[in-house]
Amino acid sequence: GAATVTCCEAPTLIRHATLADLRELDALRRANQEAVSFVPFSRYEEVASRAPQTLLTAWDNGDMTGYCYWTAGLPVGTIQQLVIRADARRRERGLLLVETVIRLMAQDPRRYGASCRCRLDLEAVDFWKAAGFAEIRLEDHGSQRGPSLRFYRELKRTLLPLGPFLPDPRRARSGRPGP
What count of other Cβ atoms lies within 10 Å of the Cβ of residue 91? Predict the structure, then answer.
């Protein structure tokens, strides 16, 4: 399904990706490849064919202006990639896509939270905080691009332990590798 949301002065259409969208989606990813993790094109093809609700695109005036790829893990879903075209409405489009993904994640009663990872050196660290995510730990996997922060956003309260997914003040920014 598609949803049209007015963001600023022009409407933004958010919809599931189709196979026909993938070349444009990949071009947008390539234009931002220094800031996002690598996902092979074949993965996009598989997701668009089998689970299109986990690959959302943003459209403005007929142009793809962003996309969000997430995985539907339990008890925590993970935003794997968020790519938004750089322009004056970048932050609003990003927030719109994230809120749409959060609503989709929350539809599963077994899902209690959302997670994402962002490199320390990117301006997106502030974006994730503005989107309601909290830093839960520093992760250093030996990447040439440097360490990243793991973020978490609660979807609903739980009394059950969710292990490494929940914020724990004793582990915050400890450097402990995560899932």
Answer: 14
- For residue 75, cis peptide bond before it (omega within 30 degrees of 0): yes
Contact yes or no for 72/108 (Cβ under 8 A): yes
CB 103 within 8 Å of CB 68: no
pTM of the model: 0.84
Please name which of 46, 52, 81 lies closest in space to residue 67, comparing C-alpha atoms. 81
Report pLDDT digits (tens) over 28-42. 999 998 888 889 999
Angle, in degrees to the nearest 10, between helices 22-31 and 41-50: 140
132, 103 contact by CB (below 8 A) = no
Burial (CB count <10 Å: 0-12, 13-18, 19+), residue 16: middle
Distance CA 88, CA 94 (A): 12
Residue 56 CA to residue 135 CA, distance in Å, equals: 24
Question: pLDDT of 86-127, one tens digit each?
Answer: 998 999 999 999 999 999 999 999 998 999 999 988 889 999
CA distances from 120 to 40, 135, 150, 151, 163 (A): 23, 11, 10, 12, 23
Tell me the H-state helices in 32-83. 41-50
